[in-house]
Amino acid sequence: MSELQTGLALLGAALIAGIFVFSRIQEFRYRRMAEQVLPDTGTDVLMEGDAPPVRSEPGFSEPVSLQERLPETAAPDPAVEFTVVLRGTHPASAGQLWQALIAAAVTTRHVRWAGLEGAAGRWSTVTGPSEHRFDAFAGMLQLASRSGPVNETKLALFSEEMQAVARELQWTAESPDLQNALATAEALDRFCAKVDVLIGMNVMFAEGREPPARQVRERAEREGLALGEDGVFHAFDDRQRNRFTLAHRDGLPFLDMEEDFTPVPGVTFLLDVPRVRDAHTALTDLFAMADRLAQGLGGRLVDDNGATLGPRQLVAIQKQLSDILHQMDRQGVPAGSDLALRLFSN
User: Fold this and answer.
1) Number of structural domains the chain divides into
2) CA-based angle 104:107:113, to the nearest 5?
3) HSE of 211 in the Cβ direction (CA atoms, 13 Å)?
4) 119: DSSP letter
5) Does residue 256 belong to any structural domain of this protein?
6) Cα(166)–Cα(263) distance, integer angstroms
7) Residue 111 and residue 244: Cα distance in Å, rounded?
8) Inter-axis angle of helices 94-103 and 152-169, nearest 10
9) Cβ count near 215 (within 10 Å)
10) How far is Cα 298 from Cα 270, in angstroms, rounded to an integer?
11) How many CB atoms lie under 10 A from the CB of residue 128?
12) Looking at the domain assignment, is residue 7 inside a domain?
């Protein structure tokens, strides 16, 4: 094969690789656009049962009364949920409840269910149809999330749907006061906005010295990060929950391919404070990893304003983090708890 033929073959291979990379990036962008235009509305109660961002931060006034409470309990929680209790003169199974939900054409989402066993006197989580029988059911609609507080229309619709479910069961439905629930939802949303914080650190590379995506991926995987379908690297805890992420600074996805030579001008590490159980340790690990990546790839560790981040700045961030975590603990919503994961979801 002549040098010309060899050169053309290499050029063709490079062109094919470039087209593949471009198509993967376009696919990722179109998927992101679709998610923005048609956002996920949450978990479908008839499919899975209970439901497990930059926010503005309005002023915080009265505290939400969440003290002396176990966030992980199945019992109704009026501080974070609008609860309709269904009761009857005869026990009913979880299977009968699910049939009633289908017959009543319930559409409300972000609802979790619990059943009350009269003999035991305790609430048990109900996640799907079964033969287990209960003396009462509680349908609990979450009052706030990162999408904001629930509104009066949604609460009224939920109440109407629960009345329909009760009729299917030949039971009665007991709903709390709507206006009190709206006030609680607003207060809860103000609290959530106050502590809803993302901690970010960036590794930036000088123009002309940007590493290829392949090299960044090798470093990330060497650090134990896993590339997700969202094109972002994730650090998981022992329960497979997110601790922090590593993303392309320009919002492009990292691709699941070995020979991606796309230059990377910078990367961003993010810690979603309310959703991380070991936030202090995660922050320390994030900083150490970001520093190693900066040194290994010849970059600079900086904040969003381009100021250098070092041990002294880390101490200041840790102090702010301690204050946020203390506020969450004081309100009975520990960071990374099941309740926090539900409240700080979209």
Assistant:
1) 2
2) 80
3) 24
4) T
5) yes
6) 60
7) 28
8) 120
9) 15
10) 20
11) 15
12) no
151 and 88 in one domain?
yes
Helix, strand or coil, per DSSP, at residue 212 = strand
Asked if residue 257 and residue 128 are part of one domain, the reply reads no
**Residue 149 contacts by C-beta under 8 Å, 6 or more apart in sequence?**
143, 182, 185, 186, 188, 189
Q: What radius of gyration, in Å, describes the C-alpha atoms of the chain? A: 25
Q: Residue 57: count other Cβ atoms within 10 Å of its Cβ.
A: 13
Q: 65 and 86 share a domain?
A: yes
Instruction: Give the chain's count of helices (H) and strands (E).
Output: 9, 13
In the numeric block, which tokens belong to residue 173? 């439905």
Assign residue 71 the CATH number of its domain: 3.30.1400
Judge whether 261 and 212 are in contact, CB under 8 Å. Answer: yes
pTM listed for this prediction: 0.75
pLDDT tens, residue order, the chain (346 aa): 555 444 444 444 443 334 334 344 444 443 443 333 333 334 333 333 333 344 433 332 333 444 434 434 578 989 999 999 999 999 999 999 999 999 999 998 889 999 998 877 889 999 999 999 999 999 999 999 999 999 999 999 999 999 999 999 999 999 999 999 999 999 999 999 999 999 999 999 999 999 999 999 999 999 999 999 999 999 999 999 999 999 999 889 998 877 889 999 999 999 999 999 999 999 999 999 999 999 999 999 999 999 999 999 999 999 999 999 999 999 999 999 999 999 998 8
Antiparallel, parallel or unpaired: β 233-236 and 242-248:
antiparallel
Residue 8, both tokens: 């053309």
Same domain (yes/no): 215, 265: yes
Q: How far is CA 168 from the centre of its chain?
A: 34
Task: Give the separation between CA 43 and CA 108, rounded to whole angstroms.
Answer: 10
Domain C-terminal end among 160, 186, 212: 186
H helix runs in the chain, sequence order: 3-37, 45-48, 94-103, 152-169, 178-195, 213-222, 279-297, 311-330, 338-343
Domain that holds residue 238: 197-343
